[in-house]
Amino acid sequence: MPLVPLPTLLADARARGYALGYFESWDSYSFEAVLDAAEAEDAPVIVGFGATMLADTWLDTGGIEMLAATGRALLERRNVTAAFLLNETHTLDQALAGVDAGFTAVMIDSHRWPVEQATTAITRLVAAAHAAEVAVEAELGSLPDAYHGGIDGSHASLTDPDEAAAFVATTGVDCLAVSVGNVHLLTSGSADVDLDRLQAIRSAVPTPLAIHGGTGFPDASVAAAIAAGATKFNVGTRLKRRFLDAVVDRTRSWTGAESVHDLVGSHKDTDLLVAGKRAVTETVRSFLRLYGASGRAEQVTTAVAS
Ligand code: 13P
Description:
Number of helices: 12
Largest sheet: 8 strands, parallel, barrel
Strand order of the largest sheet: 1-2-3-4-5-6-7-8
Bound molecules: 1,3-dihydroxyacetonephosphate
Strand content: 5-15%
Low-confidence stretches: none
CATH class: Alpha Beta
Number of strands: 8
Order of helices and strands: HEHEHEHEHEHEHEHEHHHH
Number of domains: 1
Radius of gyration: 19 Å
Shape: globular
Mean pLDDT: 96
CATH superfamily: Aldolase class I
Structural class: alpha/beta
Helix content: 40-55%
Distance between the termini: 14 Å
């Protein structure tokens, strides 16, 4: 299945009352894990790589191109209904590099920038990306985060519905990430989300809305959030945590007798990282079911073909 434009996926999800998951990968193991999950669940999905945690020195010296090539090489050989996102770059130039490298959607991590600076950069990005048939996501409002453990809300701000409407009209983005109480990078507990605010943004903004911080978003509120206007959830931290836990468990069972060539980078069952990959697949499958995306790939394929 060729890649599906992000707006097409979002339109199908919105029309049919489910949400898409963007499951953030960081290497080929985690990327393949998401593909395995989407295939097993017959679910449309947004696959891709996050830039926000990565070093600029690496991103700017071939990292973006390497991630794009890895993703495209794997996607071309799989039967997955997917868009391919370069998520949350540090700079406009990195997002533009993502457009050139073969991602089908890009986003700048501009939530700490002054709104005027973000508006200018994202308007430029949209012009270049749309000319290459690449979609753009942007964020207005700023999520608290739990990078250092406790929740840091010092830079946080909730999304205002009228400002969001103006921002989308000026920039022309294809998807808007909103701040409605959701928290980035939570490793325990869940966020206290304001679904009335989400509904108000949905009423003011025609563009599909994304919820970042999927790890800490309460499961019990997902259906209500979709009804209130959420069309995309981003999940990252939970995947890395499950990956790490599984690799640590697997590593503990190393006797010292096995060959390092089987354990490290072999992609065989004996590979330590394959244990992590399997844990990510199971985690993504449960999110796909939670979002109502399971079993939906065929309808998207049919809609695209007709
Ligand atoms: P979590 O890591 O909190 O799931 O959030 C991921 C995210 O929003 C990436 O954009």
